[in-house]
Amino acid sequence: MSNSAMSVVILAAGKGTRMYSDLPKVLHTLAGKPMVQHVIDAANDLGACAVHLVYGHGGDLLRQTLHEDNLNWVLQAEQLGTGHAMQQAAPFFNDDEDILMLYGDVPLISVETLQRLRAAKPQGGIGLLTVKLDDPTGYGRITRENGQVTGIVEHKDASEAQRQIQEINTGILIAGGADLKRWLAKLTNNNAQGEYYITDIIAMAHQEGHQIVAVHPQRLSEVEGVNNRLPACAPGARLPGGAGGKAAAGGRDAARSGAFRSARYAAARARCRDRY
């Protein structure tokens, strides 16, 4: 397990056209609070030194709604892909820290799964969260050689043989700050979408001889994004896991006290005092 300090990047720039609402996608509520707040809470529970929130659409509303002290607001003026989003945050990365990449519209990711991912990250390599689906249509496929992860091929760029692969990329990963900055600088948009894919760094790491370790979440529901206004997103809806508003994904209490949050934040900042 890496002993490095860690910061988190949360991608939250998407408009969410399938939500049929002018409200930024990540501000739609789940269990009484914005989706992105669940992700921020997870980052703080992990002891993140800083949380870099990459925003675009609805930035003013996001700023009015979210009041975490350790948020670093990073503008992505044009949405040119996940790699491009990470490039906007890269100037804030410290070389000797780990960077965990999360998504503002994937609110059920558990702290336990993220802790296992962080523990699995190899020195100089990447920890990658993957799942296996019966129908992986539309998702990036994990390519392997002799059991070792070698890359990710997006669905539109995949061959027929690669489209038979059932292991897919969730988009969540962790890598060292210096390595990540080096790989991000090499990204191109030479692909079917004309975008900068963060997934291209997997092949870069492999080509440099670094290991990519795949970890699976405890539950598939942890990595399901919210792409439409499901009933579960209504104000007052409960997270999976029964009474009390606790999420099956990590057992996070939707009504966790401000005092507890403040204590978590203070502890994280004490560990990272000299870094930001």
UniProtKB/TrEMBL annotation:
Any single GO CC term annotated in Swiss-Prot or TrEMBL for this entry: cytoplasm
Cofactor(s) required for function per UniProt: Mg(2+)
Keyword Cytoplasm among UniProt keywords: yes
Entry's localization field: Cytoplasm
Residue span(s) of domain MobA-like NTP transferase: 8-121
Single GO MF descriptor: glucosamine-1-phosphate N-acetyltransferase activity
Coiled coil: none
GO biological process, one term: regulation of cell shape
Stored InterPro entries: GlmU-like, MobA-like_NTP_Trfase, Nucleotide-diphossugar_trans
Pfam short name (any one): NTP_transf_3
Catalytic activity line of the entry: alpha-D-glucosamine 1-phosphate + acetyl-CoA = N-acetyl-alpha-D-glucosamine 1-phosphate + CoA + H(+); N-acetyl-alpha-D-glucosamine 1-phosphate + UTP + H(+) = UDP-N-acetyl-alpha-D-glucosamine + diphosphate
Alphabetical UniProt keywords: Acyltransferase, Cell shape, Cell wall biogenesis/degradation, Cytoplasm, Magnesium, Metal-binding, Multifunctional enzyme, Nucleotidyltransferase, Peptidoglycan synthesis, Repeat, Transferase
Matching PANTHER family: BIFUNCTIONAL PROTEIN GLMU, NUCLEOTIDYL TRANSFERASE
Family per similarity comment: In the C-terminal section; belongs to the transferase hexapeptide repeat family. In the N-terminal section; belongs to the N-acetylglucosamine-1-phosphate uridyltransferase family.
Function field: Catalyzes the last two sequential reactions in the de novo biosynthetic pathway for UDP-N-acetylglucosamine (UDP-GlcNAc). The C-terminal domain catalyzes the transfer of acetyl group from acetyl coenzyme A to glucosamine-1-phosphate (GlcN-1-P) to produce N-acetylglucosamine-1-phosphate (GlcNAc-1-P), which is converted into UDP-GlcNAc by the transfer of uridine 5-monophosphate (from uridine 5-triphosphate), a reaction catalyzed by the N-terminal domain.
Protein name: N-acetylglucosamine-1-phosphate uridyltransferase
Organism field: Klebsiella pneumoniae
